[in-house]
Amino acid sequence: MIKQVIFGDPIDTGAIVKDIEREERLSEWQTEQLGDSIVFRCALEQKDIVYGLGEQVRGINKRGGRYISYNTDNPHHNDDSPSLYGAHNLLIVDGYRHFGAFFDTPGKVVFDIDCNNSGEIVVTCPKDVRVAELTGDSAYLIAREFLSVIGRSFIPPLWAFGFGQSRWGYKRKRDIDGVTEGYRNNNIPLDWICMDIDYMDRYIDFTVNEKRFPDLKGYAASLKSKGIRLVPIIDAGVKIEPGNATYDEGIRNGYFCTNHEGKPFKAAVWPGMTHFPDFFQPACREWFGNEYRKLTELGIEGFWNDMNEPAIFYSEYTGALNSLTPPPSTETEAENNAYKDYRNFYHSINGKRVLHDKVHNLYGALMTRAASEQLDKLIPRRFLLFSRSSYVGAHRYGGIWTGDNGSAWDHLARNVRMMPSLNMVGFLYSGADTGGFGGNCGRELLLRWLAFSAFTPLMRNHTAILTRRQECYRYGDTEDFRSVVSLRYKLLPYIYSEFVKAALYGDMYMKPLGFEFSDERSRNIEDQLLVGECMMIAPVIEKGAKGREVWLPEEMTEVRYDGENFHCEQIPKGLRHIDVKLNEAVFYVRKGKCVPVCKGAQCTDELDMRDVVLLGAGSEYRQYIDDGSTKDVSEDNIRVIFKQ
Ligand code: GLC
User: Which ligand 1 atom is nearest residue 433's CA?
Assistant: First the structure.
C-alpha cells in the first residue's frame, strides 16, 4: 500500500511517476512544524531494522546513525560523513511491523535514526514536502511497491556490463593504447576505457584535444573493432570562454544559473571559472543534452557525468579554495565543501527565481536527465550513461558510481553494504571505483575488490591521478586477475539477465539477506548479499584473510571458480567456514535454482550467451537475452532453458 500526504507547496521532483492516493495525515509518523522545517517522528521497537537512504555510509541497517541528504563532493568517505553525492530519502522499518516513507523534497533532509539510542527516527525536512507512506507485509514488498511508483530503471547496453578500465591521467592516445595492449596481451577481458578530463581541450566540455587525441572518430572505430568502447567524462560547469560555441550559446539564451545580481554565476571547477547550466529550464536541458552530439558524431556511445552536485572549488563570492580548506570543524561545514555557495546562485523554475539551496539535491539528477533524453534521440541503440550526483528519478535516465572512495578495506566493505540500498531506490546500474579512487591499491585489495565487483552491474577500475598504476596487468603475475575478471564474463548470461529482469519487473538486483529470510542471523548480516533471484555471495573483505565464515539460510550449492573450472558442492543450511584463494571467487546457488554460465570471452562482442551450462540443484532458468543493444527490451526476450 502506498499513499501520500502533501505538506505546503512542494516542488515536483519527478521521482514518483504514478498517481498515488492522497490522504490528510500519515499513519506511522507524528508531524510537527517548526519554523521553515517540518519534523517527522516515529518510535522504533528494539528489534527493528531500518533500511534505505541509498547512497549513504554505515550499514545496510541505518539504525544508530545521523545522515544528511545534501549532495556533496566529499572525497573523504567514512562512517561519519554526513552526506555523499546522492539524495535518496527512502526509509523502510522492518520488525513486527513493516512500513516506510519517502521524503520527496529537493532540499536538505536530516535523518536521525536512533542515533543517541532515543528509540525513534526523527526526520527534519523543509516545510514544503511530499511524503509517500508505504506499508506492506515485508521490507522487500515495501521496496517493490516503491520501485513500482518511481518508474523503470535505466538499462545500458550489454557492453556496459563488461569490465571497464579508467584512470584520471590517460593524457594521450598512447596511454589508452597501452591499456588496450596491457589487457589484450595478458588475456584479461576488457570492454571499455574511460576518458577522464584529460581528453578535453583545457577541460572544456564537448571539446577534444586534437594534438593528444588526433582523429578520435577513427580511433574510436578502430578500438570498437577490437571490442573496446571509449567512455568520455562530461562535467557540469561550462568554461567561461567567449568564442567557444557552447559557452556563447548558453550566454545568448540565458541558460546559466544566475547570481544575486541576476548575472551568470561564476564558480571555479577543473577548467577554471565556469558557469553552471540551469538544468531546471527545459530548453537548457535540451541544449546541453544536444551538445553530446559533438561526441556521438565521433562514434561515442557512453558517457559519465561528473562534478554535478555541483562541485565548486571557489566562487566569485567565497574566493577560497573550498576543497583545500582544512577538515570541517562543525557538522554544518561538513555538510558540503561548497555549502556557502549554494546560497549564492539561482535557478529559473517556471519563470520563478529559486535559490539553489532549496532545490540543491536535484541538480545532478537533472543533468543526467538532460543527457539521457537527448542521447536517446542521438543514438539508435541503448547507450551507457552514469553520473556522480543523483536523486531518485534519475535512475530512469542513467546509472551512478559512488564517487571518490579510497584504496582501503573499509571502502570495499562500504561498497558491499551500499549496493542493496542503491537498488531499493532504483539505481540498479551502479558500482564503486574498484580498487579505490584515492590512494595506492595493493594487489590483495584489488583482487578481493574485483572478486566482489564481478557481481555488481557497473564493474569499473578507476583511480586518481598521482596514485600508483591500478590496471590489472600492473601487479606482476596476471594469472589471478585473469581468473577473477574472466569469471565476470562467464557469469554475464546470469548478471545481464537478472539485471534486465529486475528492471522490467520493478525488482532489486542486489538484496540484503533479510529481504528473503526472516531468521535473526540473516536479518543482521551486512557482508553477504543476494544477487538476482538465484544467487548469494559472501565476498572476502578483510585484509590478510584466507577465507571467511558464511551463513547459509537454506541449503545451497556452493560454486567455486578456480580460474579454469567450476566446482559445485551441496551444502546444508547453517554456518560454514570457507577458504578462498586470491584467484578464486565463491558463490552460492539458492535451493531449487540454477545459474547459467557461458564460456567467457575477451569482450562482450565475442560472448555467446546462448551456449550456457546451468549450475545448481534446480532444473531450469528463465534467461533474458537479446542482441545487447536493442531499445525494445521486453518480456518477449525471456526464454526458459532446462538443465541437460
Ligand atoms: C572527480 C571524479 C573522479 C575524476 C576526477 C577528475 O574527482 O569523481 O572520478 O577522476 O574528478 O575528473
Answer: 9
pLDDT tens by residue, 215-248: 999 999 999 999 999 999 999 999 999 999 999 9
**Ligand 1 centroid to residue 458 C-alpha, Å:** 17
Closest CA to 453 of 464, 465, 441: 441
Q: How many domains does the chain have?
A: 3
The minimum-distance atom of ligand 1 relative to the CA of 235 is 12
Is ligand 1 within 6 A of the CB of residue 114?
no
Tell me the whole-structure pTM to 2 decimals.
0.97
Q: 141: domain range?
A: 2-150
251 and 167 within one domain: yes
Other Cβ atoms less than 10 A from the Cβ of 640: the count is 8
Q: For helices 216-225 and 173-185, what crossing angle results, to 10°?
A: 0
Residues 469 and 410 in one domain: yes
pLDDT of residue 327: 46
**Numbers of helices and strands, H then E, in the chain:** 13, 39
605 part of the active site? no
Check if 45 is active-site. no
Residues 105 and 24 placed together within one structural domain of the fold: yes
Ligand 1 atom 5: residue of nearest CA: 168
The last residue of a domain, from among 150, 178, 205: 150
Residues 214 and 145 in one domain: no
Tell me which residue has cell 554475464. Answer: 492
Which residue has a Cα nearest atom 10 of ligand 1? 168
